[in-house]
Amino acid sequence: MAEEAALQLVAKERAKCKAAIEAAESSQRIAELELQKRLNAEMIAQKEFQEKNKALASIANSDLRYRKYTIEEIEAATDEFSNSLKIGEGGYGPVYRSYLDHTPVAIKVLRPDAAHGRSQFQQEVWRSVHQPKIIE
């Protein structure tokens, strides 16, 4: 009887061990599926991020409101910074009246010795872009 009870106890322990192994394997499969879902979500987010950046770059390159001009284009527009086109002298340097893409513009030049005021100059430029004043 003792032997039979011991065999039953061993059988129960084996069943518990087998159930624990199956539970661990099931948990591992679930973790692997969750990992795959996370990786897929990250890939989708990365693709969306790249597409968004491409779209923004495309808009920035084609939107004339935000076009960047080369120094050669600015020099040509100001007739090499001609005094005849100078309309004033700001705290950071001279201001020239000109036309870029058939649009009247004021071109502000930051003097090299005023570099300490670069952030204020950039704020002034930002304000002039977002809150333009018409010069007549």
Characterise this structure.
There is one protein chain. The chain is α+β, with helices and mostly antiparallel strands. Helices cover 60% and strands 14% of the residues. Strands 1-2-3 form a 3-stranded antiparallel sheet, with helices on one face. It is rod-shaped, with a radius of gyration of 35 Å. The model has no long low-confidence stretch (mean pLDDT 85).
- From the alpha carbons, calculate the radius of gyration and give it in angstroms: 35 Å
Give me the side-by-side strand order of the main sheet.
1-2-3
Helix/strand class: alpha+beta
How many strand elements? 3
| Low-pLDDT ranges | none
Write the H/E string, N to C. HHEEEH
Q: What is the CATH class designation of the largest domain?
A: Alpha Beta
What's the number of domains? 2
Q: How does CATH name the architecture of the largest domain?
A: 2-Layer Sandwich
Distance between the termini: 113 Å
- The number of helical segments is 3
SSE map:
Elements: H1 2-62, H2 71-77, E1 86-90, E2 93-100, E3 103-108, H3 118-130
Antiparallel strand pairs: 1-2, 2-3
Q: Characteristics of this structure?
A:
Phosphorylase Kinase, domain 1; alpha+beta; rod-shaped; 3-stranded antiparallel β-sheet
Question: In brief, what are we looking at here?
Answer:
The chain is an alpha+beta fold and 136 residues long.
